[in-house]
Amino acid sequence: xxxxxxxxxxxxxxxxxxxxxxxxxxxxxxxxxxxxxxxxxxxxxxxxxxxxxxxxxxxxxxxxxxxxxxxxxxxxxxxxxxxxxxxxxxxxxxxxxxxxxxxxxxxxxxxxxxxxxxxxxxxxxxxxxxxxxxxxxxxxxxxxxxxxxxxxxxxxxxxxxxxxxxxxxxxxxxxxxxxxxxxxxxxxxxxxxxxxxxxxxxxxxxxxxxxxxxxxxxxxxxxxxxxxxxxxxxxxxxxxxxxxxxxxxxxxxxxxxxxxxxxxxxxxxxxxxxxxxxxxxxxxxxxxxxxxxxxxxxxxxxxxxxxxxxxxxxxxxxxxxxxxxxxxxxxxxxxxxxxxxxxxxxxxxxxxxxxxxxxxxxxxxxxxxxxxxxxxxxxxxxxxxxxx
Length: 388
What we know:
By secondary structure, this protein is mostly helical. Among the domains are: 3-89, no CATH class; 141-284, no CATH class. The chain has 19 helices and five strands. The strands form two sheets. It has a three-stranded mixed beta sheet with strand order 2-4-3, covered by helices on one side. It has a two-stranded antiparallel ribbon with strand order 1-5. A hairpin with a 2-residue loop joins β3 (185-191) and β4. α6 (108-121) runs antiparallel to α13. The longest helix is centred in the middle third of the chain and has 23 residues, at 143-165. The chain starts with a helix and ends with a helix.
């Protein structure tokens, strides 16, 4: 049996143990049907399978770039299997093995600088945290207005993305509005260049957030990447390993980096003007100047969650201490802080929190504002080490 088929089988076997680990699978259905019909494989056996697969790569007929990508993926997934089998893995080692970047502590002095800058630009009265939370959550788009604005953004962003990096001819998305979810929006890639986008109407979706989600989840973010990789890697190049999109592996960090960079590479300095244009007439206020200043100043606050994770997993902090840290330095509401800590204490997802900030940094530094390099991220098999 060839190494790619064995890799897909390993991914699907591991995924049977952990709901959500296989983010999407659109490979040969006979493989998934066969694995689903098997007796559940023991985690210890999966650890052995991963080691055997890694050893077999050197003798395979795959070119070096594919072998390098598969080694990177298997390094992360083997770590997931080891944890599943009961092995203790130090948090920093787990993050580095799974996502290719070792987590780092961000000094509170950096957050203090952010607080001073935000204090100067945020309008209103009350504490800094109260004003920041009001900016993030007040004036949300709701109901039909949300759907109308989101659909118009997708049409606009699809046209812009096609001009910037192109799009496969067959790509398409369907949008569903849902509630009672732990996230603001989610991309379910269905294969065949299609995605189902779910938007959580319970979330505080301000104009700036809606614009970010349209770019992050769809154009030119997650959907665009998955559609391009299916076209370029699976259909054109026959690299079936791409048809299993896995959490717990370095490709997930790059995927989150692409999505986090999406609005910046697509709109650049036009972001606030585009936002104002699309919400005009809705009755929801959007101040482009304030939004621009706050977004620029607050970017480093994304690393507060990474610090909280390090506190929990390397410094023996309690959940309450991590919540207090998120509220103080991230200027977060208690609800948001509690939600973040729940995510960060999940045995499987605890290391994923780093993918947003570290993925963004890796992809931003690699792209350096060049759409041609962004297109490479969308279409090539690259690892975090490649980007550095």
